[in-house]
Design a protein that fits this description.
Its main location: membrane. The protein is mostly helical. It is built from six helices and no strands.
């Protein structure tokens, strides 16, 4: 089996084609044929690496295949232009002729040539389809940079929003404390006003009660005076009635009997009572007008 060492393949398709193409040949053909196939394969890989270097690809993508075959037997196709590698650089006739001179039949040489040509085309296709390691590293670096910038921006936005929210919370707390203090002051003022009104009402009620008590006392005094005057009037009326009856009795002693005397006395009392009622009504009307 061929000795393939120190390779670092970027595209998996390259390794698959190499294993598919070289290992069956290594088992099937003679040892001298193996050296020719390996040398030709190495030469085309060398050209592929040279073209990648000319197109400024990084050295990490290089594929190094070391062989024990002398360099005189390696078939190299010269580059027509060192800065630009042509796509149609594969010399099929030279390869088939070389393989036929080494003992391969024409059909075998053509099959090997087609396989190598397909492998090279697949390498080109893989180069166009897949991104290089340097570009991948650049994209990864740009992604991490953008991610870091986004993270920094988000942190800054969060910090700013947190600062604004804290300021708003502090402002609301101050407004709440001011409102609470104002409410307490209003409650204290209202309580003081209510207490003052209650005290004033109590004082006014006390004054009114005192005025009412004074008026009641004055009425009691007036009623006492009126009752005293009425008693005096009654006593005077009794004496007047008694004197009137006695006078009538002495004047009409001869023609007066007991019934007539009684009638005279009752009539005198009636007159006295009527006069007293008139006096009492006048006094009462006077007291009401004063109240």
């Amino acid at each position: 089996m061929l000795k393939l060492t120190n390779y670092n393949l970027k595209f998996k398709i390259t390794q698959n084609y190499r294993l598919w193409f070289l290992y069956p040949l290594a088992r099937k053909y003679k040892p001298q044929h193996k050296a020719i196939i390996q040398s030709y394969f190495n030469s085309h890989f060398h050209l592929y690496l040279q073209r990648r270097k000319n197109t400024e690809e990084p050295k990490k993508d290089a594929i190094l295949i070391h062989s024990h075959i002398p360099t005189s037997k390696i078939l190299l196709t010269k580059l027509k232009n060192s800065s630009k590698f042509s796509i149609h650089q594969f010399d099929t006739y030279n390869l088939v002729s070389t393989l036929e001179t080494t003992g391969f039949t024409h059909s075998q040489a053509v099959a090997i040539m087609k396989s190598i040509h397909a492998l090279i085309n697949n390498l080109e296709a893989a180069k166009t389809k897949f991104i290089s390691r340097s570009n991948l590293e650049n994209e990864t670096h740009l992604f991490h940079t953008s991610q870091s910038e986004l993270k920094t921006e988000i942190q800054s936005m969060r910090k700013n929003e947190t600062t604004v929210l804290r300021a708003e919370t502090s402002n609301l707390r101050k407004q709440l404390e001011t409102l609470e203090q104002t409410l307490k002051e209003d409650l204290m003022a209202l309580k003081n006003d209510v207490a003052i009104d209650v005290n004033e009402r109590k004082n006014s009620n006390k004054v009114e009660e005192k005025d009412i008590e004074i008026k009641i006392q004055e009425l009691n005094n007036k009623f006492t005076i009126i009752l005293g005057e009425i008693r005096a009037i009654l006593e005077r009326s009794k004496w007047d009635a008694t004197r009137y009856g006695m006078c009538k009795f002495f004047l009409l002693q001869q023609n007066l009997n007991i019934i007539k005397v009684a009638i005279f006395i009752i009539a005198g009392f009636a007159l006295i009572v009527i006069s007293m009622q008139e006096t009492i009504q006048k006094k009462t009307h006077k007291i009401k007008s004063e109240l």
